[in-house]
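Protein entry
_____________
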Amino acid sequence: MRELKAASQLQHAWIMQAWQADPGLHPAAAMLLSDLAKYGEARPSELAKRRFVDLSVVSRQIAQLSAAGMVDRRPAPEDGRASIISISAQGHEELSRRRAGYLAFMERALGDWDEEKVVELATRLAEMNTDVRAALGAQPCDV
């Protein structure tokens, strides 16, 4: 558990370092953008559930992303009061730019790992995440 906590703290440190070097979109909003890119359009309530955060948090992130032109919002067909959020073309561009930076960092950090080592780690982490989600009673998905 100490190593998992350390890995989480190191990832957070990298995210904050990258944000300081390139301020603008908050890292949490960027993660919501990534979720939309992976799973497609969704209601804010669905996004909050997938991200394990309160709806008010997602609403603030959507507002930031919308103001930056990175998401589109349309009324839900069955209930015009609700919104459906999707990633915009500008959002896809921003996400690609951020992913390139992340991949460059990981290549620097883990470039000497062979493919077998990377696959083994990814497999074990995926198994752990599946079991933890099940224990939380969460829907199976890659958050």
Summary: Residues 89-110 form the longest helix (22 residues). The chain has a mean pLDDT of 90. The two ends are 20 Å apart (CA to CA).
